[in-house]
């Protein structure tokens, strides 16, 4: 039994594609005729029907002719082509969502002006992936020269990377803009680099320091809830235990210089680093509380009482 052959007109009827479109694909080398008749008419087989259906499906998915040609010539797998197209589509969807979010945020302004739209649009174009790259670059800058543990660095990344919601408020876009500014601030990076180098020494036991921090925070939180005074006997005892465990984890002596170092850390948490954390909370839709700040402020006062100047 011979192979069933179709003229270009019959192929058009079978597939619902126009003769002109089929001829275009054929001329581009995507659908070469199986053979030609004695009168030089293009003839196609059942395999060409399936090939044309695949071309149409890929074109409907937005795949370009060059990628289809590579696929049909077996230089790309169907999976690779579809994965590439899916990635492009998802990027386009995110971009359209971001555009809609900018328009909604601008319309929330009572009397929006061109500057409002320009500012919101400029910042919204910084994608979540680009922001993550900014954070990674910032972490690399502040970690330069310090023997930072890989696990600690990864935790730092995961807790520091912001995400702009699909439908951000004007306040969240403003927070996004401020975080980007902080991450590009060389003075901020130098400040944290100096602190990181002082903290991350060869003597540091990061796991022991984290354990001491968590345990102390729990004890201090209870003390604050119970309205214990930082300069009370209980307060001084908590401070002395924190000084002992944190100094041991850092390979340092719990003296006045060590207390001054701790106080400086609190000052930085209250400054730009504290502001960064507030902005992260805004983007995550979290309520910014002062509980943590109160706890460390209480502990600093207790340390001052435990080891007077």
UniProtKB/TrEMBL annotation:
Pfam families to which the protein is assigned, alphabetical: MerR_1
Transmembrane segments: none
Alphabetically ordered keywords of this record: DNA-binding
UniProt KW tRNA processing keyword: no
Domain HTH merR-type: 5-74
Gene Ontology terms, MF aspect: DNA binding; DNA-binding transcription factor activity
PANTHER family: HTH MERR-TYPE DOMAIN-CONTAINING PROTEIN (PTHR30204:SF93), REDOX-CYCLING DRUG-SENSING TRANSCRIPTIONAL ACTIVATOR SOXR (PTHR30204)
Protein name (Swiss-Prot/TrEMBL): MerR family transcriptional regulator
Lineage, highest ranks first: Bacteria, Pseudomonadati, Pseudomonadota, Alphaproteobacteria, Sphingomonadales
């Amino acid at each position: 039994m011979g192979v069933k052959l179709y003229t270009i007109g019959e192929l058009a009827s079978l597939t619902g594609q126009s003769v002109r479109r089929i001829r275009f694909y054929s001329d581009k080398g995507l659908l070469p005729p199986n053979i030609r008749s004695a009168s030089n008419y293009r003839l196609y087989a059942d395999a060409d029907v399936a090939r044309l259906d695949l071309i149409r499906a890929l074109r409907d998915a937005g795949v370009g002719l060059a990628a289809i040609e590579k696929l049909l010539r077996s230089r790309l797998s169907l999976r690779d082509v579809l994965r590439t197209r899916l990635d492009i589509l998802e990027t386009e969807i995110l971009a359209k969502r971001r555009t809609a979010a900018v328009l909604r945020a601008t319309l929330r302004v009572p009397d929006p002006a061109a500057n409002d739209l320009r500012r919101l649009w400029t910042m919204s174009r910084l994608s979540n992936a680009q922001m993550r790259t900014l954070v990674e670059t910032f972490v690399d800058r502040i970690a330069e020269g310090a023997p930072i543990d890989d696990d600690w660095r990864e935790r730092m990344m995961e807790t520091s990377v912001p995400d702009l919601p699909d439908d951000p408020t004007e306040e969240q876009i403003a927070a996004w803009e401020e975080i980007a500014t902080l991450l590009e601030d060389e003075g901020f990076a130098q400040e944290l680099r100096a602190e990181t180098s002082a903290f991350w020494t060869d003597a540091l036991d990061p796991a022991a320091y984290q354990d001491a921090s968590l345990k102390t925070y729990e004890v201090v939180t209870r003390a604050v809830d119970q309205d214990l005074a930082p300069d009370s006997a209980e307060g001084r005892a908590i401070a002395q235990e924190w000084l002992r465990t944190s100094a041991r984890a850092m390979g340092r002596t719990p003296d006045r210089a060590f207390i001054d170092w701790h106080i400086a850390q609190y000052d930085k948490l209250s400054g730009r680093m504290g502001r960064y954390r507030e902005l992260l909370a805004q983007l995550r839709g979290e309520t910014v509380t002062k509980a943590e700040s109160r706890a460390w402020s209480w502990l600093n006062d207790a340390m001052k009482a435990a080891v007077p100047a």
